[in-house]
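User:
Can I borrow your eye for a moment on a structure tokenisation matter? Would you put together a sequence-and-structure record for a protein of your own picking? Please set it down just below, with no commentary around it:
AI:
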Amino acid sequence: MKKIIYVAIMVLTSACSIDMSRTVAGAGKTAKGVPLAAQITTPSTGYVYTARITNIGRWICEGTFRTPSVSMVKPTTTVTVPLVCSDGKKGTLILSGDGLHLRMVGTFRLSNGESGQVYFGNIR
């Protein structure tokens, strides 16, 4: 009987710690046409999201943004995300789109003048 209770507790503990976060893939390009990979990770709890833009083999820029629960379910949402890059640059990403379905477009500019656009989710 003790073994059954122990197993039940372990299963329930494991189920409670499942990470329910979700990553929404994206892609884009710099103003010079260099392809980019991108992603937004949605939180399992709370309202802190992570946006990442990757220029493969050169740099990764990442930033977090917090939104109130209601703003991400509005038909249109715009947020500004401060970026910090792996090579020391900083920048800003402005995201606009459908927060409910995480279909968004972002425009970014980095401290060295580099800029571009990224698209997240199912953009039609």
Notes: The chain has one helix and eight strands. Residues 4-18 have pLDDT under 50 and may be disordered. The helical segments are 2-16. The CA atoms of residues 16 and 124 lie 36 Å apart.
